[in-house]
Amino acid sequence: MKSSTSEALWGYFFILPQAIGLIGFAMVPLILAFALSLMQWDGFGARTFVGLDNFIGQFKDPDFNIAVVNTLYYTVLTVPTGIILSMLVAVGLNKVKGKVLYRLFYFMPNITMSVAVAVVFMWLLNGDFGLINLYLRDWFGIQGPQWLTDTRFVIPAISLLSVWVGLGGSMVLFLAGLQGISATYYEAAEIDGANKWQQLRHITIPLLSPTTFFVTIISIISSFQVFDQSFVMTGGGPAKASYTMVFHIYDSAFVDFTFGKSTAAAVILFVIILVLTLIQMRISKRWVHYEG
């Protein structure tokens, strides 16, 4: 009994730093954010309790509604594309020679500063002299659009950047998932005469579903938090076509100095992400298959 108590105390001792960090840098700010969302505050004067007025005001705010629509549009474009491409790249690199070097190249954008990447893509996506439009014109005879100044193409352009940046991180996760699939499944499939496509469809994709589930959750969370790209590349424009929810939170807090309204928008974003995550966890039982 004394030994087990001592082990438990040592366990609490070792998790204490992490617990302090979690409480101090996550739980306390979260509680304060919920409290501030019920108040009116400009960052300098006294706080005034206004109840749910900030939340009601957000739903009536045209800018907030635009931000929600743009964020959803961005998520729909980015998440499925990123998951499919990263899975295909992972499958392609799983048993190729020099795969360590290839993994390095694919993962490098994931650790590159987002502002630096956005500046480079501003040049690539320039409608007049950008390389992407240059290649479209010279190779395919297509006149490329004004990617960053046309309201129809600005979200797809930002999505293109995000897919490129996030491809390496998701690819590494899928590679880890592929390593956990037993080779006996593929050997049995080859004996039965299954080709590579049939193996991919009936073995790889179903057994990668736990990894796909995890990547989907973190990708959706990340997509709802998009800010750097639109802030650097377009400033939320043109005509608020790239005005996202986090951009709205930033704009309300540090441009309009309405911290109560900004925090209310952040709380709404938190609830949206939480609800979507819970829905995914609920329906995951229908399509996530665990080996064994």
From TrEMBL:
Chief subcellular location: membrane
Record's keyword annotation contains Transmembrane helix: yes
Transmembrane segments: 12-36, 72-93, 105-125, 153-176, 205-227, 259-279
Entry keyword Disulfide bond: no
Keywords linked to the UniProt accession: Cell membrane, Membrane, Transmembrane, Transmembrane helix, Transport
Highest rank taxon of the organism: Bacteria
Subcellular localization(s) per the UniProt record: Cell membrane
Membrane topology label: Multi-pass membrane protein
Annotated GO CC locations: plasma membrane
ABC transmembrane type-1 domain ranges (all copies): 68-280
GO BP terms, alphabetized: transmembrane transport
Alphabetized PANTHER family for the sequence: ABC TRANSPORTER PERMEASE PROTEIN, INNER MEMBRANE ABC TRANSPORTER PERMEASE PROTEIN YCJO
Protein name stated in the entry: Sugar ABC transporter permease
Species name: Paenibacillus darwinianus
